[in-house]
Amino acid sequence: MKRLARRSILVSLFGLAGLIAGCERPPIDPMQQGYRGTGMVEMTNPRIAAALQAANQIPEDTPATPPSGPLAKDVFKNVKVLTDLDVGAFTRLMVSITSWVAPEQGCAYCHGSGDLASDALYTKVVARRMLEMTRHVNSDWKNHVAGTGVTCFTCHRGQPQPANIWYTQSMEPASSFAGNRYGQNAPAKSVGLTSLPNDPFQPYLAQSGAVRVVAEQALPEGKGATIQHTEWTYGLMMHFSQALGVNCTFCHNSRSFKEWSQSSPPRATAWYGIRMVRDLNANYLEPLKTAFPPERLGTEGDAPKLNCATCHQGANKPLLGVSMLASHPELAGAMPAPAAAAPAPAPAAPTGTLARVLFEAGKKDLDADAMKQIGSAAQALKDNTGLKVDLSGFADKTGNAAKNLELAKQRAFAVRDALKTAGVADDRINLKKPEFVVGGMSADARRVEINAVN
Length: 454
Fold this sequence. Notes:
- By secondary structure, the chain is α/β, with parallel strands linked by helices.
- It has two domains: 71-216 and 224-336, Photosynthetic Reaction Center, subunit C, domain 2 (Orthogonal Bundle), CATH 1.10.468.10; 353-453, CATH 3.30.1330.60.
- It contains 13 helices and seven strands.
- The strands form two sheets. Strands 3, 4, 5, 6 and 7 form a five-stranded mixed beta sheet that branches. A two-stranded antiparallel ribbon has the order 1-2.
- The longest helix has 21 residues, at 265-285.
- The model is unreliable at 16-22 (pLDDT under 50).
C-alpha cells in the first residue's frame, strides 16, 4: 500500500510539473481580439514582448540626399534593375544593403575584389533578382504588406542568408515496416514540435493547394479532404501561429473556423499573404536554383524558399509594423522621372524708347553706333512678336526749318529700311511726322527715336 501511495504521489508531482511546464509564467495580459464570448483573445506576456521589441530594432541608416546628378545606369556599368536612381540614391542604397545583408563581408560578398560590373559571383545575380522581388512585393502586393512594405533587412537582419528559409523535405519511405511516414512523428519546429507532417510548405506555399478541410455542408457527401491534407493544413496553421507569435483566434472565430463573416480582418490579410508567398517562391526563388551553387540547394535539388517566418520572425507585423520604406522609397517601386524644369517666364514686353539713333549734322547716313542701336531694337521686336514701334524723327529750328524737317524724315526712312533689312515686317513699323525739339542746335536734335507700341 505504501509503495502504491508513493507511486501515486510521484505521478501527481510529475503531472503537476508537466502542467506547469506547459503554461506561460505570469504576468499575462489578455487582449480581446473579437466579439465577447467567442474566445478570440490574444495572450501577451510583457517579458516576451520586451524580448521581441529588442529583436526588432530598426538599424541606423545614412541620411538621404536630394535627387541630383546623372542616373546611375549612365555612370556605372551593368546596372539592370535600379535604372531609375540617380548616382546619390543608388550609392546610398548599396551602402544600406551591405549593412542589412553582409555587414561583415562588405561589398565583396556580391562584387568580389575586382570589377564591380562583373556577374561572376552568384550572390550578385541573386541579389539583383531579390531587388526586383522586393519592388514587386511593395508595389503589387499591397493587399498584404499595405504601405508598410518590406526591405532587404526585413528578412536578412544582418545575415547573408535569412534565418527562416525552407527546402522541400524528402519523402523517401522509411526503412521499416511502417512505410512512408510523410514527415509525421518527426517533431520539427516548423509545426510546433508536433507529430504533424514537418513539411506543410511544399503543398501549400510552393503549390496552389486549397488550405481547407472543413466541409461546406452539415452532412457532406462524397470525398472530402484527405487525412493527409488535413494534417498538412493543421501543420501550416501551427507554422502561422509561431511565425506571427499569435494563436488561432488572431484570425478565426473558434466557434466556426471556416466562416469568413465571423473572422477578424487579419484573416483576409493572411489569405493574400499565402498567395503572395506562392508567387514569390514560384516566380522568383525557385527559378534561381540554376544560379545557386550545389551547397545552397536542398536535398531534393530545390532553391531556398520563404514562408511566413522569413519576414515576420515571431511578430504579427514584421519589425513590429515599423516601415523602412519612408527612408528608402526606391524599394517601393520604380521612382518617378524627375519633373522637367518649368520654362522660364517670358520677359515682360519692353515699353518706352527702345533705341535713340543719332546722326551727324546735315547727314542721314547710319554709322556703326546707329546700326548697333537699330540691331538692339530689332532683337526686341523678334523676341516680342506682338510689339510694334513708332519712328519719330527730330530736328531743330536753327537755319532752314523746312530743310531740317525734311532731313529728319529722311533719317526716319533710313532707320525704317534698316529695321526691315533686319527682318522686321513693314506693318510693325509706323512712321510719325517729324517734329522740332525745344532748344538750340545739339546732337540730341539730330535723332530718330524707336518707341515701343504694345
